[in-house]
Design goal:
By secondary structure, the chain is mostly helical. Helices cover 46% and strands 9% of the residues. Strand 5 and strand 6 form a beta hairpin.
Length: 233
């Protein structure tokens, strides 16, 4: 008697989420991480997937179809005083109901990120989270070889530097060393070599450097590359 084969789990699934602004419950598509392995990863952690394949980054942002508030799972649940009213005035009052919860084309992906950047700014979300969203959007433009990548690398860098100054990365996917590394790496990518070297040097002296060896090794590698590029100028 043959044993029935188990059907593989689909690569994508519908996740139920609740909008933190209006409490509307809706579904949005997500990619199972095991079904999307990057072929390469850039030095700023941008993953590259097989052409035509699934990219989890395209579904990182959830967009409420009712009120237009866009957010990631890393957004905090708390809203500062008057923030909800401002978001409703600036986003919800102008919102035409749309469903981002299905398979997205690149235009919808980019729109979801721009909505999230605006939503995060109006909400006063942590600089670390705002920086991460700007960086992910820069990655999307990198896929398209668009000059817009530089614009969003600059925006990401400004937010990450503010995150370091205000130490607001606690409770986010970014540690202080990751914030320092990304600030250095984005300075490097933007051709600002002395600033990049200064950030990489902070990692070499960081008290947690023995606990985040991967970041330490990346920083050393990029410090050498940056120093060579700076001398060649």
């Amino acid at each position: 008697m043959s044993v029935p084969t188990k059907e593989p789990r689909p690569a994508m699934y519908a996740q139920s989420v609740t909008c933190p602004l209006c409490d509307h419950r809706f579904k949005t598509m997500k990619v199972r991480s095991r079904r999307a392995t990057p072929q390469t990863i850039d030095s700023d952690f941008c993953p590259h997937y097989e052409a035509g394949g699934l990219n989890p980054n395209h579904y990182h942002i959830s967009v409420c179809p009712e009120c237009g508030f866009a957010f990631s799972q890393d957004f905090t649940d708390d809203f500062p005083p008057q923030a909800k009213e401002e978001i409703r005035k600036q986003i919800s009052a102008k919102w035409e109901r749309r469903d981002f919860g299905r398979i997205r084309d690149l235009k919808q992906v980019i729109e979801s990120y721009k909505l999230a950047i605006y939503s995060a700014a109006l909400k006063g979300e942590k600089h670390a989270i705002q920086g991460e969203i700007c960086l992910r959007l820069a990655w999307l433009y990198r896929e398209e070889r668009s000059e817009e990548e530089v614009r969003f690398l600059r925006l990401a860098l400004a937010q990450l530097e503010d995150s370091y100054r205000h130490s607001d990365f606690g409770g986010t996917p970014l540690s202080e060393m990751k914030v320092l590394y990304l600030a250095g790496e984005l300075h490097r990518r933007l051709g600002q070599y002395p600033q990049a070297i200064a950030y990489f040097a902070k990692i070499a002296e960081h008290p947690n450097r023995s606990h985040e060896r991967g970041i330490l090794n990346l920083a050393r590698q990029q410090w050498r590359a940056t120093a060579e590029a700076n001398r060649a100028q």
